[in-house]
Amino acid sequence: MTQRFLTLAEVQEVLSISSPQAYSLVRTGELPAIQVGGRGQWRVESAELEAYIARQYEATRARIAAGHD
Asked: Is the pTM of this model over 0.85?
């Protein structure tokens, strides 16, 4: 069974970004996430991470098509 939710550390690893960058993505809502447990640990659903990646690919394609590398 595939893992449904990822920690921010796992998101960092998948996207090769820093901890503050991962935290910023979820705090701004750019990457939908939930807080769980008494300490409010962030969790990102695998499907949401894949959708975020797809959106980033689309945004990159649009930027390239518009001539803005």
From this structure: yes
